[in-house]
Amino acid sequence: MSLTANPVEEREKLLLKPREGGPRSGRRWFLPLVLTLVSLIWLFPLLLALVNSFRDYAFTAQHGYISWGGFTLDNYKNAWEQGDFGLHFWNSAIITVPAVLLTLFLSSCVAFVVARFSWKLNLALLGFFMAANLLPPQALLIPVYRMFRSIEVPFWFSESGTLLNSFQGLILVNVAFQTGFCAFVLSNYMKALPKELYESAVIDGASVTRQFFQITLPLCRPALAALAVLQTTWIYNEFFWATVLLQQGDKFPVTSSLNNLRGQFFTDNNLVAAGSMIIAIPTLVIFFVLQRHFVAGLTLGATKG
Amino acid sequence: MSSKSKYRGIDQLSARDKVVVAAMVVVPTLIVLWLVWLPAIGSVLLSFTNWDGIGPISSIKSVGLQNYKDIATIYPPFWPAIQHNLIWLAVMFFVATPIGMLFAVLIDRGVTGTRFYQTSIYLPVVLSLALIGFIWQLIYSRDQGLLNAITGGTTDWYGDPDVNLWAALVAASWRHSGYIMLLYLAGLKGVDPSLREAAKIDGASETTTFFRVVFPVMRPINIIVLVVTFIESLRAFDLVWVINKGRNGLELISTLVTQNVVGEASRIGFGSALATIMLLISSVLVFFYLRIAMKED
User: Fold this and answer.
1) Alpha carbons B228 and A83: distance in angstroms, whole number
2) What is the ipTM of this complex?
3) pLDDT tens digits for A82-96?
4) Does A147 touch chain B if contact means CB atoms closer than 8 Å?
5) Quick check: B205 contacting A, CB < 8 Å?
6) Which fold has domain B96-234?
7) In CA terms, which of A1, A14, A84, B243 is 20 to 30 Å from A191?
């Protein structure tokens, strides 16, 4: 990986580039046909939800889903009001944004030390963070839950008086779990930066802080962007910790508030579909607008460099 | 060599730099130690006790392996949960993963419309599994669902304990194979084209080339896919929790642990023993993953 290469663009080009040799002669129409069919099957559940989120419940209850008509926007209006999505989106934002920023900052710190210095403990340190990323969260639930319940915090910090039921606690848990993956990806990226950069910086008398903020971080911008997109999606989608650590429904982020929605709209699947679409919008926007960053983030972790 | 002395040079730190570097390592380490590793150790220790979660910590008594014995003998949902986790793993490993790999191979052959195929197949990957549970409700619902409308049946696909695990697995595979496709697509693009050419010159068919040449050189990706599949199967939780909180045919180890803590009866020692079983299984996987991921360093 050269210094100037942008892994995000490189990866996009790579994934879209046709392989040399290409399909063999004969039946050239066959493969595109199969793939188009597969793609449509894969899109189908989402399209079904999308279409029916715009249809009146009474109409589809009478005619079934294999019908056409009864279009309305009411489901969205009702879902937004009944699901209290304004509040839950706000909750999601104040959980996701700090968690992503903190994760990226802390993992950059770890990755910088691991990549910049050749110490014996580096590998163990990285392993310590990566293994944490892979443990099943449910297996850690009991101690975390108990700890959070017994740690008292001032009321100005969290109105619940303990870390349980507080956004700060949930943010910290997300950070602890995600730091490993980001530190791994970033350390691989930073190791590819030429050491000469640091040599000249040291000769110029730049402190470690300056090297970190003025040399390393700016050069890692593409990797940081890819990870930011990926982490935003993951933490926004995070369901388990939010559900168990925030026990009051009005504190839930959107992904966990889905569960409340079910009880209220028990049989009205069209309303549920509208709610699902509302919840999917942020991730779908990320998907369509920042797709290449998302893909780069995912594959940067799996294939090196 | 002079560069060697220089490297020692850039590793040399002033007193202030040392404090900064120490902080850069210590702060994240403490957070992860506090919220991941200490709880992991805590789960293991508590699993040997009878703590009910109410009394003071000093009242905790060691009961040896009693919790584990109870789980295996007098806790009815345990063996079904193990069985469901194994089925989950088998489906992800033998069905969803090969499907994802097949899609990657087909797309990699470079036909027009690559972007459309890729995008459609990995679109579910950006959705949470909790949300996927709701989206598939339109297909699975008993009274209004598409599946019953087409087949004319009256099966409650999410409720009937004979079928709900399979219904959940279809939805989970829908997402998993998209993820695997993406990983393998990146892997396939990284395969040296001259290897394929050499195989072609030797007269190998495309299938032989794939299994004998391409697949083996993708070893790092294969291992990562393997670990991702195992870990995700062990951690499976969100989807079944939104369907029915992991009861009635959808018991998984992860949901049993959660029920024992958050539910009405909190049995700490008991839940911890279940958690420890999860930790044991995952530590084997983590070990293999770390060995592969760090081998190149």
Assistant:
1) 34
2) 0.87
3) 888 999 999 999 999
4) yes
5) no
6) MetI-like fold (1.10.3720)
7) A14
